[in-house]
Design brief:
Alpha-Beta Plaits, elongated
Length: 118
């Protein structure tokens, strides 16, 4: 994404936007972590903190930011409420940091994390 004015040009890479979004997701209630975009054999694994961007797709088309998030949510939480919380938090965080509107935040729930009984 690029913005130009009389002083010069500002470019923000999709990876930078993905990092902002990833941090915002992890701060949301009910989120266990990010998941890989491509499910292999129907198995979902939670990505390590350093690999968050593998669970995020950022597309900037005609100065519109579209973010797809692939997440694992804690079992027992209301999935729709957690997903809406993620959408709102990511949109707010990215817009505040960039000063530009986010057109879409799409949440793809790749799996549910179930606590093992002790």
């Amino acid at each position: 994404m690029a913005e130009e004015n009389y002083l010069g040009r500002i470019e923000i890479s999709p990876n930078a936007i993905a990092s902002l979004a990833g941090q915002a997701v992890l701060e949301c209630y009910g989120v266990v972590g990010m998941a890989n975009k491509n499910l292999r054999d129907g198995i979902t694994e939670v990505l390590a903190r350093g690999n968050l961007r593998r669970g995020i797709d950022v597309k900037v088309i005609d100065h519109e930011i579209n973010i797809d998030l692939y997440v694992v949510i804690q079992s027992g939480t209301r999935i729709s409420e957690v997903a809406h919380g993620i959408m709102n938090r990511v949109k707010f965080t990215v817009e505040k940091a960039l000063g530009m509107p986010v057109a879409q935040v799409n949440v793809h729930v790749q799996g549910l994390h179930v606590e093992e009984p002790a």
